[in-house]
Amino acid sequence: MSQKNLTNNSSADGEEICPVQKFLKALSGKLKLEIFILASKSTLRFSSLLRDIEGANKQSLSIALRELEEMNLLERVVIRQKPLHVEYNLTKKGQALIPIFQQLEGLV
């Protein structure tokens, strides 16, 4: 597939923007890929992510989770049992990306 087939938008400076490149750039933000990988294996909780991801702090983790929600890759579920807590799961869109990332892993 040629670069031209992947490109369908133009940036302000006239450069063409590939949707795949735009998506990968958004996913490459701090902690996001690591969160996505962990979410592909199990349900996530904020406190466990803080422990499991080296260099994560509350602010950076909150931002990354919110951005993944905005990308419709993660869903935030409030569990109204005592103790009240929040869990994060991959959405259908996020689950659909798992085989793609598995193929990419095979190339490395």
Corresponding CATH superfamily:
Winged helix-like DNA-binding domain superfamily/Winged helix DNA-binding domain
**E-strand count:** 5
Radius of gyration: 16 Å
Q: In total, how many domains does the architecture comprise?
A: 1
Please tell me the overall pLDDT: 85
Helix and strand composition category: alpha+beta
Structure, described:
GO terms for molecular function: DNA binding. Keywords: DNA-binding, Transcription, Transcription regulation. Residues 18-108 form the HTH hxlR-type domain. This is Helix-turn-helix transcriptional regulator. InterPro entries: HTH_HxlR, WH-like_DNA-bd_sf, WH_DNA-bd_sf. The chain has 108 residues and is an alpha+beta fold. It has one domain: Arc Repressor Mutant, subunit A, CATH 1.10.10.10. Helix content is 53%, strand content 17%. The protein has six helices and five strands, in the order αββααβααββα. The protein has a three-stranded antiparallel β-sheet with strand order 3-5-4. A two-stranded antiparallel ribbon has the order 1-2. The chain starts with a helix and ends with a helix.
Features:
transcription regulation; 6 helices; alpha+beta; globular; Arc Repressor Mutant, subunit A; transcription; 108 residues
Describe the structure concisely for a colleague:
InterPro entries: HTH_HxlR, WH-like_DNA-bd_sf, WH_DNA-bd_sf. GO terms for molecular function: DNA binding. By secondary structure, the protein is an alpha+beta fold.
List the helices and strands and how they pair.
Elements: H1 3-6, E1 9-10, E2 16-17, H2 19-27, H3 32-39, E3 44-45, H4 46-52, H5 58-70, E4 74-79, E5 85-90, H6 92-107
